[in-house]
Amino acid sequence: MSAPHEPFAGSDTTSGARDREPQPDLRTWARDLALGARFAVSGREGWTRTALTAVGVAMGVALLLLAAAAPAMLHTRDRKETDRTPSVTATLQHPTPGSLLVADANTEYHGRDITGVLLRPEGPAPERPPGVEQLPGPGRMVVSPALRKLLAASPLLRERIPYRITGTIEPAGLLGPAELYFYAGDSRLTAGDADNGGNADRATGFGRGSSPEVLGPVFDLLLVMVLVVLLLPVAIFVGTAVRLGGERRDRRLAALRLVGADIRTTRRIAAGEALLGALLGLALGSLFFLVGRHLAPHVTIRDISAYPSDLRPGTGLAVLIAVAVPAASVAVTLLSLRGTVVEPLGVVRQGVGRPRRLWWRLLLPAVGLALLAPLFGKAQGTGHINQYQVAAGAVLMLFGVTAVLPWIVEAVVGRLRGGPVAWQLATRRLQLSSNAAARMVSGVTVAVAGAIALQMLFQSVNGEFVTSTGADVSRAQVHVSTRITDGAQTAADVRRLKATRGAAEVFGYTQSEATQGGASKLKDTADAAYLPVVVGDCATLRQLARITRCTPTSTFVVPPPGDFGDDLARYARPGMRIDLNPPEGSGYTGTPRLWTVPAGTPTVAGRTDPAGDKEWGIFAAPQALDAARLRAPNAQIMVALAPKQPDAIEYVRNTAAGFGIGTYVYELSNTHAKSQYTQLRRGLFAGATLTMALIGASLLVTMLEQLRERRKLLAVLVAFGTKRSALAWSVLWQTAVPVVLGLLLAVGGGTALGAALLAMVGHPFRTDWPEVGLLSLVGAGVVFAVTLVSLPPLWRMMRPDGLRTE
């Protein structure tokens, strides 16, 4: 009889024999890889495992290709935005054959932004904006396809944009298929002259827009972290998908050892199986991406949409994905086999061997923190940060979370004892194979940890991109600004708004500027003083200043809130003459419009208006100063909406649209965010939506594969009298324990990474624990939702036919 530890046939007997083995050549590698590929597609079990692996990899590849296409899409959007921006010039004083008059006609409808441009050609050969075959004539417009549909379904909006549709803007002139955009011809557009400010700007064409604002290193840090947090879970799920069906693969390799295959051969065969699944996943993921790109025009996330032609992955990134995914699948497979001893007729795992080592797992986040430490305090002001160093440090810290997770799961579940049947089944399964449970929740753990760090960073730097407007939305919710000719027009506009459905309270005033009386004689108008002038009735003036006594002939001097008091004290004194025709540009134009500040004019303190502005200068009642004498006056009207009228603001916008060109309607808000920051937040939301969808789908695939591997075990337990409910609860507990441990680790790892990021921007440590709890609940909710979805297949796997075997 052989010794108890005598090796089976085909095993490696001594290390010396292994040392004498010749190194395999390329032909041997190709043969073993091909054999592994054949095993991957042999029989129903092989095809099922390969299909699940391919689907899991495909979802990750599709999202990676989408991320690779994002830079090209953003570049295309920026180019289109620049190409369609009117080239407004202040130096072109007279019309030319190619010049146009342009004015904004932007509006909003039910929270959706609508961009409009009014046009009037001044010559026979005006330049056309991109995507427009022919400029619309007066009273006509060309619209985007999305706006055409919205107008057809919204009579309220059609009333606001009354132009007749004569054409459609092509994709070359639109940022995306869901964009709401129009060009309209309007004969009312006029250019400014010496005595009239006009209502339009003169443009030489299109395509010379201004460069976007540079937001500095803090914004760059936010952008890098958004990419890391969104893409790292994708890479982890691709690696998890490759390891589906590992137990069946190990038993298959044990059978190969029986017929004489050595350990190196079995590893090459396993690599061939993984390689085929990865290649199929790569092809299927590319197909998913192409199909998704074709369907992109029908998908809009936070006002972001794209044309299929805009979603083109860069060649370098596409090649990197095509090479990295198969290579990573082989590397992950070989790495997973290092912890498994494959012998003939069985699989012997290191279940009673040495425990997992912790030191190298902690080394990953330590190295990541060491990379980030030199950048502490550097992401401030106009400083510069190494984006690759930031990305590498963040990736290592988040990878460290996944590396520590298996150790924590093994350490905790190894100490669990007793409890109900379902609990014992769950804990025993986790004790036997904690790897699978840790892998299943590793992606969620990284996603939550990254989200916590990103939330801490966003919350801390939010004040740099979002500013307080000072608006008092309890007094008014809408601000209407429009160009007028005299005070009577302001009063008429106020009356029309008061009669509008949904308007509760309305007040308005006329606003313009003045200068010192001798401004027309100055050689350099840069030395001219600019004094605001406000004309309104007494009730309105009391909304803008601390006025106790007021009559229709009253005037007031309101000091400025800042350091502009010198000009006001010098020229706005009682008895002083001021010019109501202030100079514009480099010289004085037109004729002086002199007016004398009445004697005895009191000085009163200003008051912040509902829009958050504090008007100052010369305040006058209508009989004290005729607003018709002002140069280019504007009417500023505040509207308080009726709270119980659903479309109150839309009715106000419709009324304001009838005031004429140069009318702007602003919905008052307590804060204002920079546009690029808002776009980043929208992109983060869109990417997070796709990533969470991938997490849920990948978890479902992983869980179904694990249940499929345990089908016979489940059927045996039911046959021995185990309650089905106990088995269902055991599956839930098998999910709950790793999820709780993973989320606790995610909170710690995410908070540590967030603290490092805050140190980089020079902000003190601060975190919103309720927000952290909410993010953790979202991650747990995704996992438990997937677990509930997997219960119906679990019931089917408990049937007696699960005892059948091949």
From TrEMBL:
The chain crosses the membrane at residues 51-74, 221-242, 274-296, 316-337, 358-376, 388-409, 436-458, 683-701, 739-760, 772-795. Keywords: Cell membrane, Membrane, Transmembrane, Transmembrane helix. Its main location: membrane. Residues 1-25, 76-98 are annotated as: Disordered. It is a multi-pass membrane protein. Residues 85-96 have a biased composition (Polar residues). It is found in: Cell membrane. The keyword tRNA-binding does not apply. GO terms for cellular component: plasma membrane. Residues 225-330, 688-799 form the ABC3 transporter permease C-terminal domain. Pfam families: FtsX (PF02687). InterPro entries: ABC3_permease_C, Membrane_comp_ABC_pdt. This is FtsX-like permease family protein.
